[in-house]
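cron nightly-structures :: item 1 of 1
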Amino acid sequence: MGFRSFMGFGPGSRRLAWRFTVMGVFGLAFVGAAGASSPSYDGPRLRSLAYVASNPEVVFAAGDGVFRSTDGGANWVALGPHLGYDQVLTDPHDARRVIAFQSLYAHHAGRYLESVDEGVTWAERSISGASPPGSDPPKGTSLDGFVMHRSLAGVWVALVEGKLWKTSNNGTTWEVRPTPSPVPMRGRIVATREAFYVASSTEVWRSSDGVDWHPTGLSNGEKLDQIALAGDAVVARTNQGWLQLAPTGAWERVTMLSAYERRYADQPKLPHGRIGRPDYCYPRQSSATASYLFATCSNNNMPPTVAIDYGIQQHSVDGGRTWMQIGGVGLPNAWFPTAVALHPRDPATLLMAWVTGRVFRSKDQGATWQASDAGLAFPTALRHLPEYGLPYLKETRLNQAVLVNDVDLVKRMAAEGVDLNATGAHGKTAVEWALIVGADSPRGRDAMYWTLRDLGAAVPMQTDATTREVFSVVARAGLSHVVEDMLRSGWNLAAVGSEGGPSALMRAIGRRCDTVDRVATAPPCRVTLAGKPLDHWIDRHLSSAQPGQSAQLALDLAELGELPLAERVVSFDAGRYRNAQDVLRLLMNLPPDAHAIRSQVFGSYKGRYGQISSNGDIYSVLIKDMKKPEWVLDVLPSDKGPINAENATLLVQVLLRDLKQPDWVKKMLRKTDGPRIDAEGREAIAADIVSSCDLAFLTAALGAGVRLNHSVAEFGWSTMRYALWSCHNRSPDVVDGFIARLHRAGLRLPASEWGTLKQDDLSALRRSSLGNYYDKAFEGQTAGVGIRLREKGSREYPEIDHVIPGLPAAAAGLEHGDLITAVDGVQTKAMSLENASFRIRGKPETKVVLTVLRKDGRTVVLSLSRQLLQFFDEPAPVEK
């Protein structure tokens, strides 16, 4: 068993395990000068070493891969990419059987790998019921321990999430056994020559065959942290020190390692300021002699500002009664081992895997060490797998050979007729794997690709997935010959995914040329693809592409700053885009300075513009959505289609206000250039200008030849009255200047509307520079009967809101709330308020006949004489 297997995972050991995981695996260091002693990565980090008892020249290792040595650990070979399997066991009864499993929070709880041919081939096995093949174990579950009986062949015990499982036939079948209580802790399981032992936090249980378990009677009140073997005896570390299980079955207190572990425990403060706490040791027993033990002790009290060993090695030659520190000569001077193996026959030989990925061997009980890791390497290609170990096993044999770069095996399988284009477990062909993993190789990155191609393998089909992963990796790796081969086989630089997005070229580049920090004297930054300039690839693309299919490619080239290339692609596609949306995307997404390209895009799009410019919708997009009105001038010269009233209004606004282009407005109104504006559009433009109450806009419009109608069709009002209504909430000087400009343009308020103005409009007109004009123009021209009407609201007829005393209506007895149902016999039920008011007014001393529905329900018909009304002196807004 490896270092992590025997050390356990109690409070103290969790600290060491955490240090190993965070600092060892990822190479992190403590703050301060200790960083100088941080280990560098030298090779695969091993977490378990195991000799074959019957042939100690054969050693297995597991961690970042599974490896084998046939010369005692001097040289190693990888046994397939079984990453994630950090524990390895050799069967004491069968030299050819090897077990590999993942112990801590495994993703494959209850599953393990077995080889019965010394690691040449592997098969996935399952502890039946714990996690059957094909099922997904609960997240965070783990295989917490795995041991083999040293006297009974084929009898194994496994600890999975606190449950004990037992097999008597080398794992062919498993059965779960009654679990002792409390639940056993992770890693607290060992096997002597006679029995299995498993521990919880307060007890140790024993079973001679893995079937029945009996408590050993650990001392009451002691909290157990670890169990291990010393000689062939079981030892346990508790919160009160070490205990050993005697042949009599009783636990006896021993001093093994206790003095070292508690050397700082009684000191509340150490000289360097850290709080004192005990160190913990993890012993290993030599199967060569029961008297020799080896232990790695974690140094929890290392000062944060000095470099010191995290792991201090101790050994004992008297069964653990006394201990001495060893190691140093030939070993790294800091950190600790991740796995230790003691030679099964020679107690002087030790094998140790270091946190840096190195392996060292000693033949003098740790006095001196030599590097022992020749060939200990692992294909970096395997990191491309989404997870390690089992996914590799599930791949096709051909894909496995490609992943580990076994060219000879690939050729043999091709000769056997294997399908070179078959898809593996991860949805990739052998060629795809060759490109993905080859791009990361230091040399010969496309060698496997060309080997497969020479053997008859096809270039992978271009899909969104292959473009995103395969093609982008190849391009960034500079494999230009492979890119050429892919393009010759039908790949398209302009291809986009099923949901759109960037082109294949853009995804292959994955970045734009960054010139932010470049000095002025630096040469221009040029984006390349696979080590060649983009114009090479654009030439290659245009030589085989169909016109009208590269809109996104043009956009991506423009984003990369390659405007000339973008213009070439647009010219190639001119007028042949697949649909109107391609044109719209180009117009909207080309950079602001791409005026020539934008003009070309729109100008070359033949025939009707469909949804792009039907009714002039393109202007709504460019002005409202893009908020970049200067782009209108890129489109306007090519647009000869009709434009609806709404978009005509919007276009005139931006041409006059933002772009200062009155000449373009003149051209459109005269129908000499630009989109066609119909009568409805002209009316809408005039109404928009009048309602703006913007003197500058009005002046520009009049200068551009916009004719303001004498009436606004939508309301049936005169332009002057519409202006007064639109400007009612503006400041007096704004209103005065605006209506004065309308007046100079020949627009007047007709006498028929004088009495329909509300008081605010009357007041605005009276105080303006036009007040005197209208005083004289309408003096004595408006006569009525002295009533003010209000909107019908929920009523069917105009309602009297106010009666002016002393006038004909008051003399006839009309009152507030009476309804006018007819004027001169004409029904008012469907009549507007303005129309009804206009009919009631007339020349002075003329008659008007009113049909009135009184509040009491009576209907009366009254003939009243009209009289002159003085509107500017009467505060009523509508008087009749």
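cron nightly-structures :: done
The longest helix spans residues 11-25.
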